[in-house]
Amino acid sequence: MMRLLYFLLLIIPFVKISFAEPEQPSQASEDARLSWQYHVCPDDPQSIPAPIMDANMGHYARFLEEKGGDPLKIDDFDSKHSNRVVVDMILLQQALKLGGANVQLNFYGSPNPSRAELDVKQGVSPILGYETWNSNFDDTVYMSDCVIGKGEFLKVVVGRQDNGKGLMKAKSLADLQQLTAVTGHRWSIDIMTLREMGIKEVATAPKYSLQISMLQERRADFGLYEYTNIINDMPAGFAVVPGLTVGLNESRHFMVSKSHPAGRFLFEALQRGIKILKSHEVFKKAYRECGFTSSELESWHKIFP
Fold first, then answer.
1. Of the CATH numbers 3.40.50.11210, 3.40.50.2000, 3.40.190.10, 3.90.226.10, which one belongs to the domain with range 2-149+251-294?
2. Cα 130 from chain centroid?
């Protein structure tokens, strides 16, 4: 049966990759598959829940509609509706299929990352719909191979154009260390990174809108933001400090539940699929096309780490 499945995977048109035969699953994975209600059936993919943040539900739906509706056939991520999380949602499905799990992810909205990750840790959902920081993992979940390496998650420095402390002329880490920063209350890796950078003062706010208000009211000098997110919604009077990036000092991975009965099977399938996608540099290509990374950003001076 498993050999037949692998043969089907080889002949299914998919992200323009010529698939090698996946690695044989372990006996433990096979036992999990046989006891799992979502059996691998080539003609009847089973639906499983996967949480993502509420804010990305609309982006994903519009992107999927624009690209023809089938996430398994998408290999072009250039779109105004695309972003890092949308890429994660698509490539997660492709990796599972390539790895031997014929499932259909049923994404549902969660108010914040902590709640989404808790659903996976408690076994409410077998898998998280996007990658997350390695420090968010514990012994209740499996950690996939890295999809974004330590220091590869780049953010840009943003603040008021008329900042009176030389922000827009900053060229080095030393130039920022005398300034104050604001970041999200739950953005633990951003907080850690800013402190490791030696920033004079790091304030936090529970909402993005409150971060912007603090910058507008000059209660902080700058914040760190994903380039594609901020450039498409730049507040009036704000700008990116030209030529500088900051790499966040952790890696990112997909999270799979250990307590959900499907967890072990999905994890091993995911690992096989990620290996195939990475061998063809699909993650790298997709993140570039959605704007998360770019040759321009990579040419800028990364002042940390």
1. 3.40.190.10
2. 5
